[in-house]
Amino acid sequence: MMRILKSREFLVLVLLVVMILSVATVNKAVLYPITLINILNSSLFLMLLAIGQMFVVLTRGIDVSVGATAGLSAVIFGFALNAGLPLPLAMLAALVTGLLGGMVNGLGVAFVGIPPIIMTLGTLGAYRGLMRVLTGGSWIESIPQNIKSFAVTRYLSVPLMVWTMVAVVIVVALLLWKLKPARYFYAVGDNYDGAYLLGINVKMTRFWAFSLAGAFAGAAAVVFVGQIGFVPMQTGNGQELKAIAAVVLGGVSLMGGTGSIWSAVIGALFLTAVDSMMIFLKVPGSWNNAVAGFVLLAVVVFDFLIRRTVRNRRLAARAAEMRRSELDHDGAGAPALVQTPEATS
Amino acid sequence: MPDDMTQNAPVVALRGIWKVFESVTVLRGIDFDIHAGEVHALLGGNGSGKSTIVKIISGAYRPTAGTIEVSGMAQSFSRPSEAHAQGIYMVPQEPQIFPNLSVRENLLMGLVGDPVENAERARGIADEIGLAADFNAPGGELSIANQQLIEIVRGLLRKARVLILDEPTSSLTRREVTSLAAQMRSLTARGIGILFISHRLNEVIDLSDRVSVLRDGHFVLEDATANLTTEKLVEAMLPADFSAPVEQETAAATALGTKPVLAVRGLSSRVFREASFEVYPGEVVGISGVVGAGRTELAEAIFGIDTDARGEVVIDGKTAPVRSPQICQEMGLSYVPEDRHAHGIFLDLPSAHTISSSLMALGRSRFMAAAKEMELAETFVERLRIKLASPMQYARTLSGGNQQKIVLAKILAPAPRVVILDEPTRGIDAHARQDVYRIIRTLTADGVGVVVISSEVGEIAEVSDRIMVMKRGNLVELPAGVRSVEQISAATFDTNGEVTA
Amino acid sequence: MKLTGFFKSWEFMLAMVLVIELVVLGLINPAFLNIENLLFSTSDFVHVIIAAVGLTLVIMTGGIDISGVSIMGLASIVLGLMFVAGMPIGFAVIAALAVGSGAGAFNGTVIAKTDINPLVVTLAMLFLYSGIATGLPTLLDMLGFKAYGAGGFEAYQYEGIGGLPKSFTWIGAGGIGWVPMPLIITVLIAVVASYLMTRTRFGRFLKLIGVSDQVARFTGVPVQRTLITVYALNGFAAAVAGLVLTAYFTSARSDLGAEALLNIITAVVLGGSSIYGGQGSVLGTFLAGLVLGFLRQGLLALGITSDVVPVIVGLLLIGSVALKIGMGVLHTKRANRAAYETERMAVAQNGG
Lengths: 345, 501, 352
Known about the structure:
The structure holds 3 protein chains of 3 kinds.
Chain A: H1 2-6, H2 8-26, H3 33-58, H4 66-82, H5 87-112, H6 116-135, H7 146-152, E1 154-155, E2 158-159, H8 160-178, H9 180-190, H10 192-197, H11 202-228, H12 239-249, H13 261-280, H14 288-330
Antiparallel strand pairs in A: 1-2
Helix pairs in contact in A: 2-13, 3-9, 3-11, 3-12, 3-13, 4-5, 4-6, 4-11, 5-6, 5-11, 7-11, 9-11, 12-13, 12-14
Chain B: E1 12-21, E2 24-34, E3 39-44, H1 50-57, E4 65-70, E5 73-75, H2 80-85, E6 88-91, H3 103-108, H4 115-129, H5 144-157, E7 162-166, H6 174-189, E8 193-197, H7 201-207, E9 210-215, E10 218-224, H8 230-237, H9 252-255, E11 262-268, E12 275-279, E13 284-288, H10 295-302, E14 310-315, E15 318-319, H11 325-331, E16 333-336, H12 340-344, H13 351-362, H14 370-383, H15 400-412, E17 418-422, H16 430-445, E18 449-454, H17 457-463, E19 466-471, E20 474-477, H18 485-493
Chain C: H1 2-8, H2 10-28, H3 35-41, H4 46-60, H5 68-84, H6 89-113, H7 118-142, H8 156-159, H9 166-173, E1 175-176, E2 179-180, H10 181-199, H11 201-211, H12 213-219, H13 223-249, H14 261-270, H15 282-301, H16 308-351
Antiparallel strand pairs in C: 1-2
Helix pairs in contact in C: 2-15, 4-10, 4-11, 4-13, 4-14, 4-15, 5-6, 5-7, 5-13, 6-7, 6-13, 9-13, 10-11, 11-12, 11-13, 14-15, 14-16
């Protein structure tokens, strides 16, 4: 229990609640259920990208191509629907597109040894270009509007997509917690050499992290197209950096091994909520990025200060332990050969 | 331990193993055995190739040539898990802990089979060997001793027949060492073979059944521990051309009238306490101590790397309110760090760049013309007899000895008044070692004060005018007459009077 | 010896690629080789080279700064706002450059004083600076500053600030003879950066820190001060890139250059810099920037849609790094084998 309270996810969750409550003192409308549901609903796209990103960052990588992968998947999704494919098959097509996009990244990083930032920056350009080449640079608009039915269906006034998301998050959380190979993501990021020495296939683990990031980007594309009903060229533009910001904010360290799916969920919620809060405070939307950037900077610097304090305390404790052990021994008498010089004081 | 054990066929046998790294040969066709139920100690100076042998047996490295046999069958490991499958498990010098995962996960990570069943076995083994830790706490909160026990449990969970303990005692308290020793005895009683690596000779004598000593990539001694003493081990570890130090007039006599070039007064940090000593021009002060005793921490505190240390340091008669490597060098103190690759030399740059780097850092000229830099490098290449094709040759491709000379050139370029050399001959061959000693003698002849820090007692005996011992954070000076290898060993290694002076 | 070294160098390869590229494009479309056109077409992309030159210095230390693209927009909008607030344009330019350098120095300070990954720090700064750039007009209104026009500063938020004086837009459109001003500025910056990198202590410090910041610290290199300076220089270069682009477009905008990140990093990496630090050259970055820029121009001239360009740029980036990795692995294997053979022969001779 204490561990949860001390976690970064919890810290950001508290910040989120504090932010919403303090905005509520200015504008009560924030606390209307419909407002909160809308924030949740509009965070879904970023949340899925962030969950995918989480796998990569857990293994000490980074993927700046997830936005472009989502864009490419959205285009394939649109094509599939326009070609008359049934919705489930079209969704599958989008997911597979994302998965393949991620696999390319995984191959380059894990098996060729290209630094993640370089590999995914390259595919960022490639996928975004490919997206435009496929569509000739124009939006896909004539999508059958029945797909929006998925987005507007509500149970207990909460959109079906949000319910689905809740289910996905719970399933992924359980898998990450209990499934043995899922724990490899943590092990590889926490201590790469150690994981290798213990017989974990570290390359395969990294490969699958990137592949999953791609697959989740594909899922994000389905949500996005479902919510707006067409595929604009900007789909996913700049969202890759937001996704990274979300997971880092939520406590996934770029040094690997820490964080959980809750980091991605809470981080994405926070960044989306910031945008909404600005509206309620009547602050111009132009300040959104500044606030997001400031919060991210403040949280990582604060985290650094805490880590430094903890480390110093631990070192001091160890030194004290050594000293006590030495004092115990000195009772037995020091070797006669050695004498202390007089000049010490 | 029973002698007949060693008569049996070995569990693990290395035959004619070679290993070459980055064009540097580390192992030269060695043979090595580990038998069931015995502790086989592997001794050797830093860089002699010990850890390479360990990594080859445990599947982390592939040998360049030679074969590995396990129970008589030739094996080829391309990754550690393949060695695990053959019952070989290495407990690395730095336990490989996942700081953010729970203790339970730290134990079970990478293990095949049913997790619940494995967790029960882990619990059983942990109780058996005395690992008292909350299974739900994160691995990062474990003490070093418990981290080591985690590694041993991991090995036993994999049904290891051979455990490799790579310097398991170097960062343990005395009490923890005693308990580890008991563990080792109970493991061998169960028929497990242990490869034991330690710098502490008395531990080797106490805990092992057989000892092999490695020097410059091949074995120079292999015998049952019963036939050995610490003196014999010290002797075997000394370089082939080592001769007992001749009694020389200590420079201290001439130093009496002069002022010290370095005076340390009451310097304390987390690791060492109230260290005080003085170094006079033209003398060599040797500081003997085992790994982890606090000697490197002392040097780093003097040189301003560790800025938390408290106490007074006077360099060439002046005291600085704050010390940094730059300020120290400006005042006339230079330092050769213990870990050459991590702190001493720029491996991926031309050698000339390392040689000129300290002068550049001091900023005695706004910038250095390429021709001038080459000239400086060539001067030192000649003076220190550095063997390289050209000063532009990348440091990574040079031998350890030549790399060390380049570090020496770097710290000597600003013409220091006093130098601290931390393990100056670590991992270099006998010839280069003699060159380093010659360089030290040239320095003292020029009136430079020298501090040599070393875990090799022979080296301390050979080069020092005065000898100090750093033991578990306490620095003490040996009386003037006490300077034989045996006497220094006794003071350094805790041999508890077994060796008589 | 030195000459053959140059011919084997990465920079020489890039120069050859550039020549081949121009020749091939010229053969397909002779209009492309008109020198004046060729030179003036560089104004479309030199801002990428300017920012990439700054980033080369940062990557040399093993760090990275992705916030440069936001600093470009920030510098642009600062200049525009100062102008509509009635400041002399020269003063506005100096203020914009100072803001860019200050932003960079702030990045460097956080990176030097903490152990936070430079990518995370500059990611936060990327948002922070672009947010400040877009939010600045409304902030100035709130603070009660007065601007030309009825709508206050906010009116300039989305359209951008036009009507900049000729003396400033000349930087983007003017030239000396056949050589356009943006290219002159780019060459000037590249020459200065190259001089810094190869001829000064500071440049050597960058390299030493990039190879090993720990060894650099033990050697007495002022690691923190050097890092802060180099990030400040990167901020300065990004600000110059932003101003050049502002002058070229004759409009100050806060979102200027936001799309350039991929091209900037590709120019640096294709130019031969290692993302791990310690290796790289300004000349390489400059040449790689030209190769990339003309590639785009050429493809457009050939009637190929510009959509293909990022695909090719991305593949070039990945391919060039994969090629280097492959060459390195091969080289190490060969060296180890050779060393083993020599040693074994020596032992065999001694033993026999």
